[in-house]
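Exercise 7. Given the encoded structure of a 326-residue chain, write a plausible sequence.
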């Protein structure tokens, strides 16, 4: 069973709530094909064309984050209820990651509990930064502790803030360059602060092949002891405690580098729908079976790793799959 772990869904109603919350970047998300109604029907046809049986939906990067506590909570509950309704409508095609009303920690813990326990979502999605603050800041530790207690899946996606530098944002590089840099920075923050070691039960999925990290692992191993001596283990060891989606825009050398750096058992299919749609969506799946990728590696990335991580049994002879309740 092919499971796409990097796929977005949002409706105009939800984006309107984000505008009321103070977001100014919802315009480009409208009309891309990530909504309901006919857009869902077209998405399902595209999934069938590409041989993707199941998508795990996330609101990232359009998370319900905002300083207004009440509005953030309302937006998070709204989108989680939307996702739960869609999964109920198409239980064999969609699963969902929960959204949380960050930076409000106690409310986020309450909402992730509701989403996992009552709405039966399969994990939690967050942006790599919380309103331009690092996820590893001490005030967010209770979130990580709760996710660890629950042995939950945590899916991380760039916020689209240009890594907080005008050298990216002011030069039209926010998504071409900034997004994979956000991935890289976030993962290295997790590693240098020892999150994979201190919270070993959290199943962390990072986006976009881990950004630039596959090319930087040896550099990090060589330099962490003098630059970040508090790091509890070699970065290459910590990196292999996490997972990475396969979004690489069809560039096989990048995928090959990630496999060689992390291991094929740490990668799983991602498409970045609707940003990769149509033929580009199909390419996001097909490039994993390029001759430079072995059959064993491709099988693990396309099917085996995600089914194991989410505890989904592969159906035999056309029987319906068993979906997890948490």
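Solution.
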């Amino acid at each position: 069973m092919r499971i796409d772990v990097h796929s977005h869904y949002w409706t105009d109603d939800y984006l309107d709530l984000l505008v009321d919350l103070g977001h100014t970047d919802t315009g480009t998300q409208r009309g891309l094909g990530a909504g309901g109604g006919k857009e869902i029907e077209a998405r399902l046809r595209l999934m069938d064309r590409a041989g993707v049986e199941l998508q795990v939906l996330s609101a990232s990067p359009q998370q319900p984050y905002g300083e207004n506590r009440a509005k953030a909570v309302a937006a998070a509950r709204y989108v989680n209820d939307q996702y739960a309704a869609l999964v109920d409508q198409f239980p064999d095609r969609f699963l969902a990651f929960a959204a949380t009303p960050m930076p409000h920690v106690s409310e986020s813990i309450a909402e992730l509990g509701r989403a996992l326990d009552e709405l039966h979502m399969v994990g939690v999605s967050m942006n790599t930064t919380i309103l331009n603050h690092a996820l590893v800041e001490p005030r967010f530790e209770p979130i990580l502790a709760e996710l660890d207690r629950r042995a939950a899946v945590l899916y991380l996606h760039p916020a689209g803030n240009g890594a907080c530098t005008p050298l990216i944002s002011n030069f039209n590089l926010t998504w071409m360059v900034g997004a994979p840099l956000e991935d890289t920075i976030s993962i290295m923050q997790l590693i240098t602060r020892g999150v994979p070691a201190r919270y070993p039960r959290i199943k962390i999925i990072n986006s976009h092949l881990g950004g630039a990290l596959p090319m930087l692992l040896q550099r990090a191993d060589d330099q962490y002891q003098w630059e970040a001596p508090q790091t509890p283990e070699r970065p290459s060891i910590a990196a292999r405690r996490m997972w990475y989606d396969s979004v690489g825009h069809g560039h096989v050398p990048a995928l090959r580098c990630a496999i060689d750096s992390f291991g094929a058992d740490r990668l799983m299919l991602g498409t970045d729908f609707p940003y990769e749609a149509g033929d580009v969506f199909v390419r996001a799946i097909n490039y994993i079976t390029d001759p430079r990728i072995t059959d064993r590696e491709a099988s693990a990335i396309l099917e085996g790793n995600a089914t194991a991580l989410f505890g989904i049994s592969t159906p035999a002879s056309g029987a319906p799959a068993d979906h997890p309740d948490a």
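Remark. Residues 11 and 35 are 5 Å apart (CA to CA). Students should compare their own answers with the one above.
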